[in-house]
Amino acid sequence: MAKNEGERPTDPPRRAEQAETQDEPQSKPASGRARQILFSLVLLVGLVAGSAAAAVVAAMFVVKPVQSEAAPAEQEPLPSEDGDECDFTLDQDLLVNVYQTQQRRYLSVRPVFVVASKEGLEELKEKAVELQHILIGMLKGKTLEQLDDPQITNTLGREIMETVNLKLDLESPIVRVRFTQFVVQ
Length: 185
What we know:
CATH architecture of the largest domain: 2-Layer Sandwich
Low-confidence stretches: 63-80
Structural class: alpha+beta
């Protein structure tokens, strides 16, 4: 009987261990199934978010250039407030990196050149590529500190006017430079 008594106390723990091992396999598949569902949901949300981000990026780089291409290449001279003066704007914004920012900041501008006559307007149109080259050279040397000045559009407008008139040797000079866009980011 001593053996039977000795076996009985050990039998229930074995049965308890067997019951625990039987419970574990049943809980793992349920947990595994929940993980699969959770993973699928996270993957689905990631795909939707990624698709939305790709659509936004595509819209920024594809739609905007298409809109700007739809604009007429030849601009009609816009009469200025002062009689014969005409406004000239480049076909695209100028975009340059801000000096000494390790290419983390940029300047985007759209200058409007006011010329003294329609002949001056035609001359400026003919020299548009040279004009753009001069402007990029001037703007890429500007530091963030210089661009942070509240009077920068006035100061830069005068500087551009003087430099362009000197370098392009225009018969009908630029009399004013205004900006329709001036963004530092």
